[in-house]
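We emphasize that the prediction below concerns an isolated chain of 324 residues; any contacts that depend on oligomerization or on bound cofactors are therefore not represented. The input was used exactly as deposited, without trimming of termini.
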Amino acid sequence: NNIFWESINFIKVNLVWKYFITKELFFFFQVKNIILKNKLESTIILSQFNFYSKWLNNIFQFRHSEHFWQIDALKKKKFNFKLFIGLFFHNLYKLFDYYSLKYAKKVIYVSKNTFDKSKIIYNKFKWKFYYISNFIELKNHNENNTKISKSNINKFLFIWRLEPLKWIDTLCEILEKNIWKLEKNIWKFELIIAWDWILKEEIKKYDFVKYKWKLKKYEIIKLYRNCDLFLFPSLYENCPTVILEAMLYWKLILSRDVGDVKYILNNNKYQVFNNDSEIIDKIIKLYSLNNAKKENITYKNRKKIKEYSSENIYLNIKKVIYEN
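Result of the prediction step, given as a token string:
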């Protein structure tokens, strides 16, 4: 917030300088670091929604998602008060999105899927749209091959917000109903969940859930290293950073086919599902693969991650910024 307000005050004096607006803080700080590191000239960076764009010049906006398909995803859930709040805010964000796009000079999408959909939904603004993939800082992670865990308990991992659209509460319900089937086929398991938000108390009631929060970076890295399978049931995504990170640590992944996920995971049928009814069987199939096949999957994942290195993305960002 301080960055936002200090920048607004500065722009009142210097309207001709270029700057960014972003809603996603994680991506925002990555872009900020690249800009500072490479000393891009006359750049101011903002976060939060842009209510001031009508009076400011040269807005460059980095976008992760649109709220049309988030609203559709919400409607799939059984209606309750939490979903009412979710629908209210996502409809409100939809309005903000429209005006942010209207007054932006250029809009950079970090998801090819979202980029393509937005060109259809916001057809009259599509000439402003650019696609540059999400990215991670490879050098900030230990790149050693982390072998599949040999623990007596199979460790599933979920890292992301605990809210209805991430579908983590439904995943817990599915796992609980099928404990007998999982234990028969893959032995005992636990689901490690590392994040916070409105579903925290709901997911903590399950005996197989190990809840973690307020972790330091090395502790998060340890979770990736020690897990056997990264689970990602979210109903809407763009180019999820947590999947990129799990790939970086040579992990097997099972994710819903949303956003760019299928492409990121090399169109691998073992790592992607479409319906909740597939989750348990997909987990069992992944575990039933021999070690050579598992290692081949994680090797291809690890090789693919190089496409999402910040070093590869920087030149594309710079080109868009300074293109007339």
